[in-house]
Structure to design on (174 residues):
């Protein structure tokens, strides 16, 4: 019987991995807490609003939005229903394919997103960018892109339909 040698993380890799795991757990929780406190929404709702705000026409097929937010279609549907009740999003049949449903950001949804953007950006800056040097920020970008391409080399770093230069996105000309 052939045995295969296990490849464990090295003494150098293990503590780095544990830091990354801690970051993946604590950063989303901290951002979620800020959004709940300041905007009355969770991080998943904010990300769905942001995805719609960044996407051409401020609308996306529900199935595409579910993939982008890394949520099931069922979870996204429940979130969109809550956001519809708040007047932030509406649904409509996709005019190019009646079998699909579009999630469309409303004027009130845009205002909610814009109103939440500054405080959320400040928290992101405080937690992520302020502790880093400019060189470390560039390294973080490169590292993130490399990991994302390794996870799924067939996907672009920015989802299709997102404004390439974020033209018209930044509420205060960021």
């Amino acid at each position: 019987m052939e045995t295969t040698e296990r490849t464990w993380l090295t003494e150098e890799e293990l503590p780095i991995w544990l830091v990354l795991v801690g970051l993946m757990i604590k950063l989303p929780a901290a951002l979620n807490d800020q959004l709940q406190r300041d905007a009355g929404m969770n991080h998943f709702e904010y990300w769905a609003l942001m995805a719609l705000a960044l996407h051409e026409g401020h609308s996306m097929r529900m199935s595409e939005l579910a993939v982008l937010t890394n949520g099931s279609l069922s979870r996204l549907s429940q979130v969109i229903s809550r956001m519809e009740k708040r007047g932030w999003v509406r649904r409509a049949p996709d005019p190019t394919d009646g079998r699909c449903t579009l999630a469309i950001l409303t004027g009130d949804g845009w205002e909610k997103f814009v109103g939440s953007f500054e405080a959320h950006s400040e928290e992101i800056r405080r937690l992520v960018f302020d502790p880093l040097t400019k060189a470390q920020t560039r390294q973080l970008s490169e590292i993130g892109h490399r990991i994302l391409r390794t996870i799924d080399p067939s996907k672009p770093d920015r989802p299709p339909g997102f404004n390439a230069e974020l033209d018209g996105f930044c509420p205060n000309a960021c």
In short: The chain has a mean pLDDT of 89.
